[in-house]
Specification:
By secondary structure, the chain is an alpha/beta fold. It folds into 2 domains: 182 residues, Rossmann fold (3-Layer(aba) Sandwich), CATH 3.40.50.2000; 189 residues, Rossmann fold (3-Layer(aba) Sandwich). The chain is 48% helix and 15% strand. The strands form 2 sheets. Strands 2-1-3-4-5-6 form a 6-stranded parallel sheet, with helices on both faces. A 6-stranded parallel sheet has the order 9-8-7-10-11-12, sandwiched between helices. The chain is globular and about 65 Å long.
């Protein structure tokens, strides 16, 4: 029997990690008797994917950020569609990035491609763009949701939506080796260490690195003698290396999940771009300060469209400010440095954040069955049902 082929698309690094864990779970469920094609990044490559083109071509967000790259994105859309039609996979799994992946799903339906279409990571319709509920219902056969409150939003319009949990919970972020990291990189056991994570997209790093540099410079004045570790990903690694060459404190740049989680274990606090990394830091029990900036035009639209009070998933799940957020105009070096000092010096503040973050992780499914295996089981069940129709 020919191995079943799943076409899987992840448009950005956070989706790359989710998709890689899903690929591993699918292989485990099928005893390796499954093949993959599609688009992804370094984590998916480690699971055997030969990406159709670099994931970085799709890793953009926000109106002002997308518009200059729209011609390239449209070319990649046509290239992806042609590849799917040529390969004729047994199922198509799209991961997050609904702006791109939604177009793929809609085109496949319009062309009458009779294959199961699964989307992994529900768009935040409860935050904005409620019409996407109907778009998904018309375009995909199964929606795999990360949050327990999400399925009812889609089930009410007839879409098969299932809560599987967030696979970041199985990332290993809680198993880092801090002592080994310090020994490998020549960082003294007693030297304070700050993890700095400026994002995984070019426009994130270009906006946040200058602010983070000034924040680190301010911290160096207030708390001299500390060092910085900067875990990064291949989409922005070269850019990050150039940017930190003149930072006022020693900076160690690392890549890969193992080094990333060891760096977390070695650090006393983190300064990070808003995103999935907040969940990894929470798992690592590393207190954090979250920051983010987008283009002014994008911020203008978001203020009028978004209906949620927080950016960080930890805060959204708990419906309170578990971790401090500094967004847009509030993302200033002085404010960030002050918040970091509070975490570095205040034991009560550190413990309060860690306690709230642990409760948020529990609500996201920590301690239950592996989210990736739940997702893999749902996909394989749909494929088996499809084959018997």
């Amino acid at each position: 029997m020919t191995r079943r082929l799943i076409y899987i698309i992840a448009g950005e690094p956070s989706g790359d990690l989710l998709a890689a864990r899903l690929m591993a779970a699918l292989k485990a469920c099928c005893d390796g008797d499954i093949a993959f094609a599609g688009i992804g990044g370094e984590a998916m490559r480690e699971e055997g994917l030969d990406s159709l083109f670099p994931q970085a071509d799709l890793a953009v967000m926000g109106l002002a950020e997308v518009l200059p790259r729209l011609p390239r994105i449209m070319r990649r859309l046509k290239q992806t569609m042609a590849d799917i039609l040529t390969r004729r996979p047994d199922a198509i799994v799209t991961v997050d990035s609904w702006g791109f992946n939604g177009r793929i799903a809609k085109k496949l339906k319009a062309l009458g491609v009779n294959r199961p279409r699964i989307h992994y990571v529900a768009p935040m319709v409860w935050a904005w763009k409620e019409k996407r509920v109907h778009q998904l219902a018309r375009s995909v056969h199964l929606l795999l949701c990360l949050l327990p409150n999400e399925p009812p939003h889609f089930q009410r319009v007839g879409l098969n939506a299932v809560h599987v949990g967030h696979s970041i919970l199985e990332s290993g972020a809680d198993r880092g080796d801090g002592a080994g990291f310090r020994a490998r990189h020549g960082i003294a056991e007693t030297q304070p260490l700050l993890s700095v994570l400026p994002g995984s997209r070019h426009l994130e790093t270009s906006r946040l690195l200058p602010v983070f540099r000034q924040t680190v410079a301010r911290l160096a004045e207030l708390r001299p003698g500390f060092a910085v570790v900067m875990p990064t990903v291949e989409t922005v690694a070269d850019e990050v290396a150039r940017a930190v060459a003149d930072w006022p404190v020693p900076v160690t740049i690392v890549k890969g999940a193992a080094e990333r989680y060891d760096a977390f274990a070695a650090s006393q606090a983190a300064l990070a771009a808003s995103g999935t990394v907040a969940l990894e830091l929470a798992l690592a029990r590393l207190p954090m300060v979250i920051a983010y900036r987008v283009a002014p035009a994008t911020a203008f639209l978001l203020r009028r469209l978004v209906k949620i009070p927080y950016a960080s998933l930890l805060n959204l799940v708990m419906n309170r400010a578990v971790v401090p957020e500094f967004l847009q105009d509030d993302c200033r070096p002085e404010a960030l440095a002050t918040a970091l000092i509070r975490l570095l010096d205040g034991e009560a503040e550190r413990e309060a954040q860690l306690s709230g973050a642990a409760e948020a992780l529990k609500r996201l499914g920590r301690g239950d069955e592996s989210p990736s295996h739940r997702a893999a089981s749902e996909i394989l069940k749909l494929m088996e049902d499809w084959e018997t129709q």
